Backbone:
């Protein structure tokens, strides 16, 4: 999977490494900004009140 | 697909899932705290700006006239007070926002909508995160009878004293935020405060409760209450 991505990135090894880094950062950003905030309420840390049945 | 490619793909998937889990734990433990600290400071700054402009909603003096003017209702999701609990740390102060929606509790403590207003007759009930989102009530079990819980809404300092707790109960035990909570030991109506958080620290099977009564009030011009002085 990662080998396939690496082979399909353009440029020489340096450029590929740079693009990979940008891709990784983009994925982490999407995770922290959208995916994790969505998944987090599914865990029990939000239940601090006595009125939710 | 060759066996080699299959093994490689499965390994890569395992590593990816492992990385995801580590990132998620980092998000829960660390990033929610960073976000919440920023949001809480924003809320307190906003309150202080509002107070310095002198647009404090007029609240009735608790020991004042028997028929005080009706104060403006709290706006859902908006901060209206700052809470100080010296036992949780000398610098511990958190904004109190109206209602206990999940989004509200990410920005501070939440006042149970429908319970009494700050300093008024009845039960002023507040919920807060034990863990994640800045860990506001992490040290909740260290609270003891006699500890001060100090709040201000801009014009008055309210000093509550804890009478009972931490008391462990179940999430459906809604009567702990009644105007006169039965298990608190209070026998008659008064000006009470209830704090709730979850227990165990990372779980949601139980709730921890403390009850306090209004001990003293003083105008902001008179300076910080004694409980906050070092």
Residues:
């Amino acid at each position: 999977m990662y080998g396939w991505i690496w082979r399909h990135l353009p440029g020489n090894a340096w450029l590929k490494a740079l693009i990979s880094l940008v891709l990784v950062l983009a994925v982490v950003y999407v995770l922290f900004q959208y995916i994790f905030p969505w998944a987090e309420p599914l865990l029990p840390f939000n239940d601090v009140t006595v009125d939710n049945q | 697909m060759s066996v080699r490619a299959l093994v490689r793909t499965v390994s890569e998937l395992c590593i990816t899932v492992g990385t995801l889990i580590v990132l998620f734990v980092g998000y829960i433990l660390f990033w929610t705290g960073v976000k919440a600290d920023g949001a809480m400071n924003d809320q307190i700054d906003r309150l202080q700006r509002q107070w310095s402009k002198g647009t404090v909603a007029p609240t009735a003096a608790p020991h004042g006239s028997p028929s005080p003017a009706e104060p403006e209702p709290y706006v859902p999701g908006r901060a209206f007070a700052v809470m100080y609990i010296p036992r949780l740390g000398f610098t511990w102060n958190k904004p109190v926002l109206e209602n206990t929606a999940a989004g509200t509790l990410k920005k501070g403590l939440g006042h149970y909508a429908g319970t009494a207003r700050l300093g008024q007759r009845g039960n002023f009930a507040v919920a807060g995160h034990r863990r994640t989102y800045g860990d506001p009530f992490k040290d909740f079990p260290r609270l003891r009878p006699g500890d001060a819980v100090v709040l201000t809404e801009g014009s008055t300092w309210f000093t509550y004293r804890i009478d009972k707790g931490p008391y462990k109960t179940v999430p459906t035990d809604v009567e702990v935020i009644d105007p006169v909570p039965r298990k608190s030991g209070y026998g008659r109506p008064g000006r009470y405060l209830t704090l709730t958080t979850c227990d165990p620290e990372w779980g949601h099977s139980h709730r921890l409760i403390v009850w306090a009564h209004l001990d003293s009030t003083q105008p902001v011009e008179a300076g910080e209450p004694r409980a906050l002085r070092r």
User: Anything to note?
Assistant: Chain B is about 25% helix and 25% strand. The beta strands of chain B are 79-84, 93-98, 109-111, 122-127, 148-152, 156-169, 191-199, 206-219.
